[in-house]
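>> received
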Amino acid sequence: MYVAVKGGEAAILATHDLIAEERRGDPALPELSVNQISEQMQLACARVMNEGSLYDKSLAALALKQCQGDGVEAAFLLRAYRTTLPRFGSSLPVDTAQMAIRRRVSAAFKDLPGGQVLGPTYDYTHRLFDFALMAEGGTPSAPVAELPLDAAMPRVPDILGAEGLMEDERPDALDRTPFDLTRDPVEFPADRDVRLQALARGDEGFLLGLAYSVQRGFGGNHPFAGEIRMGEVSVHFIPEELGFAIDLGDITVTECQMINQFQGSKDIPPQFTRGYGFAFGHNERKAMAMAIVDRSLKARDLGEAAHYPAQQEEFVLYHADNVEASGFVEHLKLPHYVDFQGELELLRKIRAEQAALAQQNEAAE
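>> returned
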């Protein structure tokens, strides 16, 4: 801690009182509950869970309430709490092929086994204000017809893979322990599991900007949305004392698989390649951006030229983390008196020397 900050301890404590007052707002209005935020701001909670690296809707809602809706600060809170939790091990990979589908769309095929399931989405809204929501109670929801979904909903890349047209992806034959980005430092070149982990907890806005740059020509890929699916998957874990898998429960996730062209090489025939995105909760924008950037970062693996920011893994992985980025930018608010005074004195000295030299030149003339 800076010595100058220690001297202002009373002022710092006073800011805690001020922020509590600001957070509460007008006391004449009802206070937001954590349950209200969790149920009615699910998309915001999903983003906080992803960037906070912890699936807990209640804690994400609490973080948003405590931070007045500041998503980056809320993710910081969630990460800090996560470090206090005991680690029991790694779960088995979730099987998204067995997802209980609530939304499933493909831009690559019109007719799919199981059909297109539009589900809850803002994609087909008119982006006009619904002023009825300003009234107490909001607008009553219209009844929704519940139709049974097909049990068979194969993933689109699996359909292409059956024809040998899609890049084949297999589990690690060595069955290595998954890399843990929160415990081990990243080394370059980074394996794909490291890259995917960094992207999964990366800032949505940063990844969105990179994905946009790729589509505008700064990356060499313009993909098709092979499939986007959202729903519930089961999480299984094998305790050492039992030796068999137990079902821990279901979580809501969003998965996106982008389809990209690949011209082939001397070792790989022409085929489609994939970019993969996976996010906690209903978070399509994040999953789509992640999938696009994932494919861009595979340039080195596929022997493609890597000229653009979205293809540079060191650039992407070092700058995708919004908590680190926020800390590095916002630390400039802390006292830098000594550093600034040093530069100020240096600048004054240089200007004085230049003025003296100018006077000498004038006298010589």
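>> Confidence is low (pLDDT under 50) at residues 1-5.
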